[in-house]
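Budget justification aside, the reviewers requested a transparent look at the raw inputs and outputs of the sequence design task funded under Objective 1. We therefore reproduce one unedited record. The lines immediately below are the structure tokens for a 100-residue chain.
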């Protein structure tokens, strides 16, 4: 992935975390849903956990190891897991435009 480029989610949905620390904890402990929304399995988060669905477009703002800071077209800004196997679910928009 390239900082400043636009991407679209190809399949499933993705968790987006308001801070990098929560994204790291989610990788270790997992995420579950409850009556008040999504939460980390190890207890309270430092911030908010939400999801963004298929077809959401986002810009990569920063890549820090296995984690990426992104800005979505719906205004959400946060952190996602960014390892190779996770990144296969994203389509660079320039690649998508060239295939049309």
């Amino acid at each position: 992935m390239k900082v400043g480029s636009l991407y679209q989610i190809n399949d499933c949905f993705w968790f987006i975390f308001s801070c990098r620390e929560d994204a790291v904890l989610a990788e270790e402990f997992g995420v579950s849903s409850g009556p008040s929304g999504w939460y980390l399995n190890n207890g309270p988060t430092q911030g908010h956990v939400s999801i963004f669905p298929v077809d959401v477009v986002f810009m990569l703002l920063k890549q820090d190891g296995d984690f990426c800071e992104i800005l979505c077209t719906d205004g959400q800004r946060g952190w996602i897991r960014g390892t190779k196997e996770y990144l296969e679910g994203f389509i660079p928009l320039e690649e998508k435009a060239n295939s049309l």
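The chain has one domain: 6-98. The radius of gyration is 13 Å. Computational costs for records of this kind are itemized in the attached budget.
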